[in-house]
Amino acid sequence: MLPALLRLLVVASLADRFSLGAAADDRGAARQQYPLAAAEARPSAGFSQHLLGSWLEQNYGHALGVLIGVGAGARALEILDAWPHGVLFLVDPYIHLRRGYDRQQNVEDEAHQRNYEDLRQVLHGHAGVQGRYSFLREFSFAVPPLWREKQFGPDPSFVYLDANPSFGAVWTDLVAWWPLLAPGGVIGGSNYTSQGDGSEVGVRQAVDRFAAEGGLPVFVTDDAEEPTWIIQKPALA
Asked: Domains of the chain, with CATH numbers?
C-alpha cells in the first residue's frame, strides 16, 4: 500500500478559480536508442487501475488533477465519476502527430476534432461533473510553464500520463510536470511496460530511470497487463 502521508493534502473548492489559455506549438519526437533497465519487482499500490478515481477521492478529496492524453474520454469520465470532489484538467492538443507516435490513437485531425466535440457534449450532459473539468488543448510539455503565468489554479496534486508511450515523450512529461506537482501529490500513468529500445513504448524505462535518479519508489496497480504506475512526491517537512 502507498504510505499514509497520501492523506496530507486537502485543497479548498477549486472550480471557480480556473481560466484557460493555450499557445500553439509543434512537436516532433526523434527516434533514439534507449538502453533497457534491469526489470525489478515493484510494490503494489493495493488497487486496480479502474479504482484510481475512488483512491483519489479517499486520499485527496477536494483537489486538482491533470489528465494528459484524453482522446475519446473514457478514462476522464471514469475518474470524474469516481472522484466527485476532484477537479480535472483535460490536456490534449487533439491534432494528428506526423512523427514519433505511430499508434492507432494518433488519428487524423478530423477524427481528433470529432472526439473533442463529442466528449464536450457528453460531459455537458453528464450528471455530477459540471464545474469540475476544463479542457486545455495544448501539448503537455508546454503546459507547466504556463500554469502559474496564466493562474490556472493551485499546483495539481495528481498528474496522469496517458498519451504517447515512447521513452522520450514520457521522460519529457516527467521532467516538465514534476516541479509543478504539489508536495505529497502523485504522478502516474498507464502502460507500465517497455518494448525493444523504447522508441515506441518505453514507459517503464522512463519511469524507472526517473524514479532511480530521485531515489523514489514506484508503485504499480494490481493489473496483470499494462498496469498503472504511481510515484509520490515527498511532502514538505
From this structure: 52-185 (3.40.50.150)
